């Protein structure tokens, strides 16, 4: 594997669209392999932000003037782009949030006020990110519900027999990650949703990594909620999307109170706005929401399937090269895996690996990846993680593997 155009994507041309990639770090061309934490932004996204602030910055909805109308239109066009991206059936089911963290907090908080009761069970999994653990713990504390955790098998996949046993008529919520940020495992979320629905539970899918690497069809998945963060899918930070099934959102109470989410306010009583505005109190993150559309269209133009193939080819190549390093163990060997490579090396601390690679211009992430319970379960303090995006190349993978060998030689 050695060509920049070995997949159906012209990576060389595509890299030109990402200004940040063209720089030297510590005298070496930057290799950015920290995409699971956040991806870099293409020029169209950066330009969309600049255009908004230079040409039509304005608060949205209710505005009588030209700029307000233009900003409102762009904001709502972005909602439509997000609807298409997730294949939701209507824009009323597409809520703008800050990201997955806010989405889980929103859903867990609302369900704790209107759905969960003492003795109910919330089922999550061992591989969840902290943001899909802590809000549920808070909801359980508030309601007396109990958190149940699906264990993993030796490959780092969900133990589906145990999942089956844990999902019972007491289960009121199932909340699982689509793709693990720490292991790369792609979970069988459709099957899990089916099991949870069969016992009458509501379902939440954390799509922070899933929406980046896989085509998402919320109607096909039949989940009640699905969330992703813009910043991992080539959009700015501070904007994300929560899909919610209309019939569920209509029954739930609002999350935050304030402007925009109301129909009528008196000192005695307030009536709430229609969906999706009922869940968007206050002035939203207009600029980043508008730019999100350009990122989603950028992804759609390349095609999720082509991106996944490209990233999985990089993963296979990288796994093959780094596995030759003495004492290196890949953490997460699921049969279905996205472009995330976690590993530990005997006798070498992951933090030192990260620092030495950075000296050679290579950005990876090291540590617990906001999955402390998973690390504890695996008996690890942390891992080193290289995660791939559409603009990464086989040549970068080769330089990374060579640099990693060099780092290991220096540290041993
Ligand atoms: N879930 C997963 C699987 C993630 O990878 C992340 C981000 N690392 C999150 C949730 C939280 O996303 P955010 O910080 O954008 O809210």
Your description of this structure?
- Helices cover 41% and strands 17% of the residues.
- It is built from 15 helices and 17 strands.
- β13 (328-331) and β14 form a beta hairpin.
- Residues 2-6 have low confidence and may be disordered.
- Bound molecules: 4'-deoxy-4'-aminopyridoxal-5'-phosphate.
Topology summary:
Elements: H1 11-15, E1 24-25, E2 28-29, E3 31-32, H2 43-56, H3 66-86, E4 94-97, H4 100-114, E5 121-125, H5 134-143, E6 146-150, H6 160-166, E7 171-177, H7 189-198, E8 202-206, H8 210-213, H9 218-221, E9 225-229, E10 240-244, H10 246-251, E11 262-265, E12 270-272, H11 286-302, H12 304-322, E13 328-331, E14 340-345, H13 350-359, E15 362-363, E16 365-367, H14 372-378, E17 383-387, H15 394-411
Parallel strand pairs: 3-15, 5-6, 5-7, 7-8, 8-9
Antiparallel strand pairs: 1-2, 4-10, 9-10, 11-12, 13-14, 14-17, 16-17
Helix pairs in contact: 2-11, 3-11, 4-5, 12-15, 13-15
The structure holds 4'-deoxy-4'-aminopyridoxal-5'-phosphate.
4'-deoxy-4'-aminopyridoxal-5'-phosphate (PMP) binds next to helix 4.
Question: Key terms for this structure?
Answer:
alpha/beta, Aspartate Aminotransferase, domain 1, Aspartate Aminotransferase, domain 2, 2 domains, seven-stranded mixed beta sheet, four-stranded antiparallel beta sheet, 15 helices, 17% strand, globular, disordered N terminus, binds 4'-deoxy-4'-aminopyridoxal-5'-phosphate
